[in-house]
Amino acid sequence: MSRSENVLPTFLQPIQTRLVMLQTGFRAMMGVKIYGSDLKEIERIGLEIEQMLKQVPGATDIVADRIVGKPYLEFEIDRDRIARYGVSIRDVQDVIEIAIGGMNIMESVEGRERYPIRVRYLREFREDVPELEKILVPSSSGAQIPLAQVLTIKSVLGPQEIKGERGLLVGYVTMNTRDRDEVSVVEDAEALLQGAVRDGRLKLPSGYYWEWSGQFENLVRATKRMSILVPLCLVIMFVMLYVSFKRWWIAPVIYFGILVSASGGFIMLALWDVNLSIAV
Predict the structure, then answer these.
(1) Other Cβ atoms within 10 Å of 64 Cβ, number
(2) What is the distance between the alpha carbons of residues 77 and 74, in angstroms, rounded to a whole number?
(3) Helix/strand/coil for 154
(4) Residue 7: pLDDT above 70?
(5) Beta bridge partner(s), residue 174
(6) Which of 77, 215, 256, 82 is nearest to 154 (CA)?
(7) Could you tell me the fold of the domain covering 70-157?
(8) Average pLDDT, the chain
(9) How confident is the model at residue 3, as a pLDDT?
């Protein structure tokens, strides 16, 4: 059993969650991607960031990946002992793979359905370490050697999930927003994290870094695009009005109506407490 499952208490719509996950890999509105080379260090940084982001107004459902904490059985082969018994590393690995994991030897065809037939040891021989140590390995002399004679079995903690991007390991700290627009929440969160790094409260080793991702990126891209398109459209409208009426002062009169309508729209958004988004 793993130490902790990364279950996000999100309340997004199913289609919205699916689209965001396809775009960013998150199951939330936004999050921080922590890049590095060691999963334990990534988990440490993520847990510290999780606690810090709880101070950001409007940030909710903050969850960092619990990466390391799942128990694994590690088979450590003793090269000196297998050499003494005349057993190769490949022989030991094949026995472990087939006896414990299983091996597909054929398929059962039943009409249009096909089922693989796998051979491996019974469950009672695979559940306990003492029973695993009794699994036999053939030696070059024909003798059957128990695994306990050629290797050591120990329980270790490892990652329950490994994610990688850009050739590096990555861990997520995901969150949603409430009562605030996404861009302002991300800006405040980034300022908080940068301040923590400068103050020494968040230690970031060399080669490790983070970046933000999520729905807010669409809003940022749309804002940049509109900052070009809106002035361009206004200029084109002014030229068209001047060409049509031959009077330059007609355009400011019409633009005043645009200003009034836009102001009314933002006033209504403020009264209804609606945050800025792509749709808005």
Answers:
(1) 25
(2) 9
(3) strand
(4) no
(5) 31, 63
(6) 77
(7) 3.30.2090
(8) 86
(9) 40
CATH architecture of 14-67+161-214: 2-Layer Sandwich (3.30)
Cα 25 from Cα 35, distance rounded (Å): 14
What is the SS3 assignment for 65?
coil
Distance, CA of 196 to CA of 85 (rounded, Å): 57
Measuring CA to CA, which residue among 160, 185, 199 is closest to residue 43? 160
pLDDT, tens digit (0-9, with 9 covering 90-100), for 133-168:
888 898 888 889 999 999 999 988 888 888 998 889
Spatial separation of the C-alpha atoms in residues 192 and 201, rounded to whole Å: 11
* Domain ranges, ordered by start, for the chain: 14-67+161-214, 70-157, 222-271
Reply yes or no on whether the pLDDT at 254 is more than 90: no
277 CB-near residues (< 8 Å, 6+ apart): 181, 182, 219
Neighbour tally for 29: CB within 10 Å: 25
